[in-house]
Amino acid sequence: MTQLPLWTAIAPAAILAVTALLLLVVDAVDPDTDSSNLLAGLAVLGTLASIGVTGWYLLSGTGQPPTDPITLFRGALVVDGMSLFFTALVGSVVVLIVLASYDYLADHPYQAEYYTLVMLAATGMSLMASANSLATAFISLELASLPSYALVASLKHNRGSVEAGLKYFLIGALSSAVFAYGISLVYAASGSLRFADVATAAAGTPLVGILGLGIVFVAGGFAFKTASVPFHFWAPEAYEGAPSPVSAFLSSASKAAGFVLLFRVFVEAFPQTAVAGAIDWAVAFQVLAVVTMTVGNFAAATQDKVKRMLAYSSIGHAGYVLIAVAALTGDANQSFVLGSGMAHLLVYGFMNTGAFLFIALTEYWDVGRTFEDFNGLAKQAPFACAAMTIFLFSLAGLPFGGGFLSKFYLLMASVNGGVAILAVALVVNSALSLYYYTRVVRAMWIEEPNGDLEVEGYPTGLYAAIAVAAVMTVLLLPAFGPVAEIANTAASALV
Amino acid sequence: MVLIEGILAVTLVSAFVVFFAPDRYAGKLATGLSLIPVAGSLYMYANFAGSGNALLGDDLAYETMTTWFEVGGYALNWHVGVDGISLPLLVLTTVLTTLALVSSWTPIDDRESQFYGLMLLMEVALIGVFTALDFFVWFVFWEGVLIPMYFLIGIWGGPRRKYAAIKFLVYTNVASLIMFIGLFALVFGLGDSLTSLDIPAIAQGVRGGELGALAGIQPDTLKLVAFLAMFAGFAVKVPVVPFHTWLPDAHVEAPTPVSVVLAGVLLKMGTYALLRFNFTMLADVARALALPIAALGVVSVIYGAMLALAQRDLKRIVAYSSISSMGYVILGLVAFTPHGMGGATFQMISHGLISGLMFMAVGVIYNATHTRMVGDMSGMADRMPWTVGIFVAAAFGYMGLPLMSGFAAEVLVFIGSFQSTVIPFATVLTALAMFGIVVVAGYLLWAMQRTLFGPYSLETDYDVGRAPFHDVAPLAVLLVLVIALGVAPDLFYAMIQDAVDPLLGGGV
Fold first, then answer.
1. Of the partner residues B68, B73, B169, the one whose CB lies closest to the CB of residue A481
2. Which of A53, A75, A73 is closest to A264 using CA atoms?
3. pTM of the model
4. Do B72 and A435 touch (CB under 8 A)?
5. A427 and A408 in contact (C-beta within 8 Å)?
6. Nearest Cα to Cα of residue B126 among B106, B110, B108, B140
7. Element housing A456 (H / E)
8. DSSP character at residue A370
């Protein structure tokens, strides 16, 4: 069997980038094209190709044990189980987003630009999963962030969208600066940017204070990208103002990309044994995890707009995933703990994207934004409402979808790491979340319609995306085992 | 054998078929399809060849065990099977669901396919609860009951249905999570000696004294904590006073057929789980706490009966009397005598049938009169002789008339708790509990006297006449079953006793 050249390891991200460029070419050749068929079709095909290659690599064992991870460009990028897992995750979300955008953007004037930005952001996110040096980490983070700012503001004539984009951009710029400053401090203390070298140098550095400060700043950058406390304030604004497919994109794929970078940086560059003198970050993340999930859930419980509720609940879920880092204590089964976070992100990628796409559907119908506006929707659109019900109950952790098992995994992980407070916080917050998720379910199925609500048309793309997300959410309950196994194997290569 | 999987699969597929069926046919289609699980469970009953208790490694009937996947060092298996405790409950579930479906034909006239689909979905979850033997699988079914019930109360319920539905959902879900934590205290306490979440494996590990210290908590304390957490979780489902406040709301708001399943089967989930988890795994803690638990049972009996006495709504009367009847189950279980535990399990079946019968009878009267208030009607016997006749028979069953299943169950419980060497002051507590029967007789006779007999009077625009055949037929079937079990308790009691006996030996 001949071996592919080494550079092809980065093909999944490269395909996404090429697709983005192709979309620009199409737009350049025929700038007046009104047909979004070509654009959306190209974007879907490109992403599917990328997923296909990723899946092939993942199943054929590229860069995974027993072979070593493939490193490229002098170790600046790495392709291993974890990077492939998250590239597949990002790709799956992007397919759903593009499918949904096809209807959502039917009359949008800048479609080519929109799809290009989505593909570029996806490229950045998959590169984040492969980053192996603080420099590529920063660059890929920016490549993911810059198109996102524009995407949030892409409804140019909608004040909310523009305002959300501006807020997102300002806080994003600030946190990028914080992140870059953190990197410079780490470089000052360790003299290296590559993760493995940072870890080696950090263990012997005399500048523990600077190193500790650098780690805190780097963590701040991740807190922004993952919408974790204390850098979470932008999230509800941005998610609410942005077009709903973009909200789904940001709260699922972008968050997952932030987390994979966080996992890699803290496990590879700042392993606890190496930076023990500078900072005990497990404790810091324990506090962050509990605060993030509690703040997110309590804020979600008090919202009166559905999209905003979902935005805050998304902050709560960031708190759940933080358990995967916070429980990385000395006596924990590290690959299992890390794998539980990865598995939750994958399930979350489908159920949360699905929930936001349902919101996109209601925006398409001009249903309105408050819980009351959803009253009686199930009579008009039972299928979509049934899918939404699955998403919400799975998000709440009832055993109606993969969300139950992935939360169960996180619970086991927190106990495994000996941090019982995380387990308690997870259970209490899940119980609370059922209350506010049920408000949507009640509005859709139980309340009487308000009157003049008329559902016109059943957009194919949106429906298809929601259906795929719902099927995946349910399937991930019985099929969770293999997924978790892949996640654990990928994590085991790291720790 | 894949019989249990077959029943689950057929019922699940039926639920989806009915969900997409036109409203006009939904009721009859659902009823017809639900006969398949009935036939399946009766076949299982007829060919039952198990012996002993499922949790103690004895011979199970229709057992399947396949490995599924692993989480954090614990194997999750698809493990189902029945013993003499779960099989009667399985039969009760399938039979009562079918009868409840028939009794829905008259009152349910809105979004019918969704209603019947959800009823069948709930049946799937209930069958799963009584047959699953892996904790993970079991918990999926356990929580799976909540969702259909939430919709059934919330969409088709009475005026305060939204409040009742959310109260039911949040109350019982929080209870499940508390129970979940309690069980996992045991799982983690067992440490490396446990390699799966198999319920029999957990039970045998705990009973075998393999529980170790967890995070500095000594095994004895750990057992106590786990017991209390699980007891609190299950007590809400039963419900035991003072965790009962969700029940009257849910019952009164739920449509009649849903009340039938709620009282007939859902409450048994709580007592079944108490028997399986608390009284089997942690029998020594249960024995140590026998007095407070028995006292809770007696309080439930008396307080529930007193509450029923104060009601004016026929349905509320039946609902509160359930609290009373389930109190007997608690008292019987904690007695740790053959008759106590066996009688308690028999009472689960008996109460399932009788309370279902009572709710259905109230429902038939309500369908005709559109009122359930004791003061509003009288002399219903003149207009609906068949319904009223069955109602009276059911009420006598509730009061413990001999040759009906309620008598057999209660006598067994009383004998069992009277003989108990575990409960201090067992004789006094039993005597107190027996006083509950007097109160039950009091309020049922009072209510029947006012509503059923005397001259007919009812201010209504509805033409009150004999109920249609399909309304009365399920009542008749249930009455036959109640009498059959009263005359020949051994139809179920023998297998129950066989499964309960191993729990009493061994001196754990």
1. B68
2. A75
3. 0.90
4. no
5. no
6. B140
7. none
8. B
